[in-house]
Every structure is written in C-alpha cells, then in structure tokens.
Amino acid sequence: MSVPPHASPPLGGGRCPAATALYGPVLDGDAMPALYEELRRTHGPVAPVTIAPGVGAWLVIGHRELLRLTREEQDFSHDPRRWTLLREGRVPANAPIMPIIGWRPALLFADGQQHRRMRTAVSDALAGIDGHELRRSVRAAAERLIASFADRREADLVPHYARKLPLQVITGLLGLDGPTGQRLGQAIAGMVAANADSVNAAERIDSILYELIREKRLRPSDDITSALLSHEARLTDEEVLHNLVVMFVAGHQTTLNWIATTLRVLLCDPAFRSSIAVGHLSVDDALDLVLWRHPPTQNFPARYATRDLEFGGRHIRAGDMLLLGLAGANQDPEVLPADGAPVIGNRSHLAFGAGPHSCPAQDPARLITRTAVDTIRHRLPDLELAVPESELSWVKSPWSKGLAALPVRFTEPQLPRTTDTTDRPHR
Ligand code: HEM
Predict the structure, then answer these.
(1) Residue with the nearest Cα to atom 26 of ligand 1?
(2) Which of 218, 220, 283, 411 is deepest in the core (most CB within 10 A)?
(3) Domains of the chain and any CATH numbers
(4) Is the predicted pLDDT of residue 138 greater than 70, yes or no?
C-alpha cells in the first residue's frame, strides 16, 4: 500500500487515505465487483488507487461523479501532458501505461474546439456506415470463421472467433485488405504490450497506415479512411493516422470482450437459457446485461484535473489523474435496484462513457456484436460450454474486462452451402 501523490486530507480533515493497488494479484476478474464495493465503503465515490508502484490516481466509482467527470471538460481535461507525474518525469516515457494514455494528435486526447473538430470527422465517418452492408459482411466473416473450426466439433471462442471477427471487421471498415489488417492488428498489439518490440511495432503501424492514407488519397473508396481524408474538418495525414489507431484500439478489444462475455451469459445464465426460447428475454437484453455487469472496459484512463477542486469529498490537485471507474459506477447503489436485480431495458449504464467523449461507435459496435452472437447461435444450434463455468476466468487487467478463454463443443454445424468470400467488410 502506498499513498497517491497529491492526495490531500479528505475534506473536513482527517488522515490521508491509503491507496489501493489496481495492479498485481488484486486483478482477479471475479473479485473486482467486491473490490469496487470495498473502495466505495472505505473512500466513497472517488477512491485513491495506484496503477503501478508509486503511480497514484483517483478512481471515480460514483455514478453521479462519473457523469460530472465526463461532462465537465473545463475541470477535467483529456490531455495527458497536464499529468503532474509525467511532467515531473516520475512516470518514464516507456512505462507500460504510456502506449494507452500517451498523447497523440487524436480526438481521445483533445479538449474543446480541437476535440469537436476531430470528433465531427470521426462521427460522420462512422455515421456513413451502411448498417445492412455491415451486417452482411459481419455475418459472412463469422461464417468463414465458424467453417474454419466446424469439423473439430470444438473450439475456444476467444482466440478463434471473438478476437478474429472484430479485427477483420474493423480493419475492413478502415479500408485495409485481410492480410494487411492482420499485420496492423499484430503491430497494435505489440505497441500496447509495451515491451522491447514496442518501438518497432509503432514504426510498423506508421508504415501500414501512411501507405493506406497515400492509397486512399489517390483512390478514395467507401471506407472510414477515405471519409476522414475528404472531411471538411481538413485533418492532416498525421491526424488521420492517429485517429485510425484510436479507433482500432478503442474498438477491437472492447468488441472482442462484448462478444465473448455475451456468449458466456447465453450459454450459462439460467435466466437467459430458458427465457430466450419463449421470448421473455432477448439477445439485446443479454448484450445490455453485459454492459452493466461486465463492461468490456471496466476502467478507462483518463482525465486530468485542470485546477485544484473539491470532487466527491476529495481535494483534487491540478494535474492529478482521474480514472473512469465504469464498472464501479455501474454498480453504484444509487442507480442499481436495492436487490441488485438485472437491469433489463435500462440503458443508463456507463459502459460507453458519457459526455462529449462518449463512444461514437455505439451503434456499429452493437450491430457487430449482435450479428456475431446471432450467427454463431444460428450456425451452431447445440453449442455448449466444454468445461464447468467455474473454470472460466477473466484476463487480468485493470482496464479491460474480458474472458481468457471460452471452450465450447457442438455436434451438428448448420453451415450455408457456400460462404460469402468477399475479402473485406466495407461500408
Ligand atoms: C467498432 C467498435 C468501436 C469503435 C470504432 C470505437 C471508437 C471509439 C472512439 C474513437 C472513442 C473516442 C471518442 C472521443 O474521445 O471523442 C471511443 C471512446 C470510448 N469507447 Fe468506443 N469504440 C468501439 C466500441 C466500443 C465498445 C464495444 C465499447 C464498450 C462497450 C466502447 C467503449 C468506449 C468508452 C468507454 C470510451 C471512452 C468514453 C469517454 O472517454 O468518456 N467502445 N470509442
């Protein structure tokens, strides 16, 4: 246990609160809900945590406080260059967190007018996606993946389905062909891993995306890259590149997690297993349940206080880091029914964030996830878990909430006679 930098005594006096480590052995996915409750009991809606030894931050787990954090940009900036620990050199430039939070000329790290300019371009590019075409291409990609393992009558749906499908779909939407999309996925995974190869990985990303941008400037087509390049916001090539990286990073792991966890709910939760067949609950209800209970991003970094202020009973200093405790805020007793019962039909969860930076891809992300889930249920109708549910575990991460594996078996795949071989999903 250590004390976060700049933690002032709680308002009204008292001792400086001890910070809870949000890394290491504490990261057992099943135990995280209890950890958030313990933090709420001990510290209230804004809890002191450390995200690495000696690196303190505030985890915002009150629903109301999280809405304020995401909506009041003048107090809570997106620009990591305001972070005191970084400015003072107390977090090295090669720290594992830096590939996720390090500044780039992209919407995720911009405030005010600069953010609005890039956000309009990204939102317009996403709004141009044709829903019918997206559903068709996701279904086709899903059927090809299912066909690749159908003969074995068993699969681990995390690596063989939930990871591959959004990779193919999102890189296709960006305008990349299959093999190049795969190379981009590997390079971005290498960058996020923050290991010795990260510098090379960043160079590979630049080279793939600058080549894509050059090609789309010469021959625009119906994809997100071309839409960004021709947008009236007049993004530079560098801005287009970094916004493409943000879209991939923000969209891939999250959609992977959403698909896999929803399949787990449908396979294991007795309420869903019995109710879907008779129409009491729908797949959309399962998707929403996951957004409430296991949001694909459980904690999102970050905002930085622009001034000293009082917030959630804490004195926050200018330059402090605040984390969006999305999972913790979703289970705030102020928004959950007293018995913690399922939240069917209620979409006031914070899985997509809120305010001006809330996820701009909620509709396509739902369409991709829903189609992925529907297609596998349709093509593998007797799908069942191949291990007891108690053997399933979550990836250990303070940020992402995703299954480590989802082993399944099935007997009679119902595959179409011909699979759509269109190489890449497009808009
Ligand atoms: C096709 C898939 C997706 C794409 C392309 C995408 C893209 C983005 C982008 C570009 C941002 C930054 C917005 C801004 O700063 O203005 C963002 C933010 C975010 N996205 Fe998504 N996203 C996708 C799927 C998802 C999914 C499935 C989830 C979780 C259910 C999710 C959760 C979030 C959250 C929590 C934020 C941050 C909100 C905030 O800072 O207030 N995204 N997304």
Answers:
(1) 254
(2) 283
(3) 1-104+298-350 (3.30.43.20)
(4) yes
